[in-house]
């Protein structure tokens, strides 16, 4: 029995070695075709999760398929490439709105801003460190990782906030320690285990095969029913989706706001203050951006409370502040605007919506206006 166990162990070691070697020898474009659709997401010991560097995948979001790339830093980009820092490096960081889910990088608001900045300056570089489900506690940790551990020469940071961030700060993530490590209950956060997991996930063909066939439902995903007919979604259908998202209920339900919304806001506020302090230590300028989501306009809810809450915080702490909401201010048919600027049945901006957000941020940013003029 002992000899058999030894043989099995030796076999597994040899098998894994050749698996890793074969994956290593494959061209990167071939690797990206082999990777399972979830393999572009990796764990982070410090800030929970990130995007796999030098990755490419097809992302389906609602009615659209988009080809997505990351650069060598693991930031969403227009292609797989090594980042060449410049004299001034502008970093955007936030959740799925900043990452630009479902949208090619060039059409995300960060990508549109980058194109505009590249047309007027050769000394500025725009970077997108946003990833789905980031919130202020994770942003604080990742910023520390980027500027104090990796020592990237960042000179300007735009932190982008959305409605659901306070829910994540309150319920998904626990606390952050002195070393800026975020605690949570999603996986066993031991650094060596996280590193091994990410290595196997990125460097073995066997992992990709196992992920494709497990759970067994993966084998039948192509046999699922056709996509919903989004053109037939009316206002009531959309509201039934948006208003029932757990992280959005503090917007529409006063009881939910009093139950956890106030506490979530205060917790996120504290992390923003820590972000400000962290950046001040490196003499990095901060701009706080708040994106008003469609749940406000579709429910005819005034967003002034949130504008004042984050605006007062910014004013008191000498933080530049941008409140993005002009995309619907002069329109009476709010649902028409929603269908034009957002993925139907979702709260994320589509290609056109991202373009309009980019213009509003550029117009309201003193930093960008000084650069342009």
Walk me through this protein's architecture.
The protein is α/β, with parallel strands linked by helices. The protein has a domain at 72-169 and 225-372: 3-Layer(aba) Sandwich (Rossmann fold), CATH 3.40.50.1110. 48% of the residues lie in helices and 16% in strands. It contains 16 helices and twelve strands. It has helices at 2-25, 28-34, 96-99, 109-120, 136-149, 165-172, 191-203, 205-213, 235-242, 249-252, 254-281, 294-298, 304-316, 334-341, 351-364, 366-372, and strands spanning 41-44, 48-51, 56-61, 64-70, 76-77, 88-93, 124-128, 156-161, 173-176, 182-184, 285-291, 320-324. The strands form four sheets. It has a five-stranded parallel beta sheet, sandwiched between helices. A hairpin with a 3-residue loop joins strand 1 (41-44) and strand 2 (48-51). Helix 4 (109-120) crosses helix 15 (351-364). The protein is globular. The chain starts with a helix and ends with a helix.
What's the CATH class label of the domain at 72-169 and 225-372?
Alpha Beta
Total number of strands = 12
* Beta-strand content estimate: 15-25%
Helix-strand makeup class: alpha/beta
Apparent shape: globular
Strand order of the largest sheet: 7-6-8-11-12
Q: Main β-sheet: number of strands, strand sense, barrel status?
A: 5 strands, parallel
Q: Specify the helix fraction band.
A: 40-55%
CATH topology of the domain at 72-169 and 225-372: Rossmann fold
The CATH fourth-level homologous superfamily of the domain at 72-169 and 225-372: SGNH hydrolase
CATH architecture of the domain at 72-169 and 225-372: 3-Layer(aba) Sandwich
Question: What's the helix count?
Answer: 16
Helix-strand pattern, N to C? HHEEEEEEHHEHEHEEHHHHHEHHEHHH
Which radius of gyration do the C-alpha atoms yield? 22 Å
Mean pLDDT: 93
**Uncertain residue ranges:** none
Q: What is the terminal-to-terminal distance?
A: 78 Å
């Amino acid at each position: 029995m002992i000899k058999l166990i030894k043989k099995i162990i030796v076999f597994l070691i040899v098998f894994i070695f050749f698996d890793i070697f074969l994956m290593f020898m494959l061209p990167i474009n071939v690797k990206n075709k082999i990777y399972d659709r979830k393999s572009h997401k990796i764990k982070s010991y410090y800030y929970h999760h990130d995007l796999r560097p030098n990755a490419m995948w097809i992302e389906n979001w609602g009615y659209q398929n988009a080809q997505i790339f990351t650069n060598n830093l693991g930031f969403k980009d227009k292609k797989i490439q090594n980042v060449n820092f410049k004299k001034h490096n502008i970093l955007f960081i936030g959740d799925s709105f900043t990452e630009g889910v479902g949208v090619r990088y060039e059409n995300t608001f960060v990508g549109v801003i980058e194109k505009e900045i590249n047309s007027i300056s050769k000394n500025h570089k725009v970077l997108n460190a946003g990833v789905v489900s980031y919130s202020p506690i994770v942003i604080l940790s990742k910023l520390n990782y980027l500027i104090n551990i990796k020592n990237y020469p960042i000179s300007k940071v735009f932190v982008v906030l959305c409605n659901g961030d306070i829910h994540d700060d309150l319920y998904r993530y626990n606390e952050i320690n002195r070393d800026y490590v975020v605690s949570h209950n999603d996986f066993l956060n031991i650094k060596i285990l996280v590193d091994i997991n990410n290595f196997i996930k990125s460097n073995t063909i066997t992992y990709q095969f196992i992920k494709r066939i497990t759970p067994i439902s993966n084998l039948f995903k192509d046999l699922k029913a056709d996509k919903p007919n989004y053109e037939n979604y009316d206002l009531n259908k959309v509201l039934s989706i948006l208003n029932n998202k757990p992280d959005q209920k503090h917007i529409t339900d006063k009881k939910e706001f009093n139950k956890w919304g106030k506490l979530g806001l205060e917790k996120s506020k504290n992390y923003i203050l820590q972000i400000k302090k962290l950046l001040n230590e490196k003499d990095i300028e901060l701009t706080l951006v708040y994106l008003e989501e469609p749940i406000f306009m579709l429910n005819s809810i005034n967003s002034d409370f949130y504008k004042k809450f984050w605006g007062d915080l910014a004013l008191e702490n000498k933080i530049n502040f941008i409140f993005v909401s002009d995309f619907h201010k002069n329109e009476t048919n709010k649902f028409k605007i929603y269908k034009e600027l957002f993925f139907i049945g979702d709260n994320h901006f589509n290609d056109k919506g991202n373009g309009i957000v980019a213009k509003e941020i550029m117009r309201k940013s003193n930093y960008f206006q000084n650069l342009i003029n």
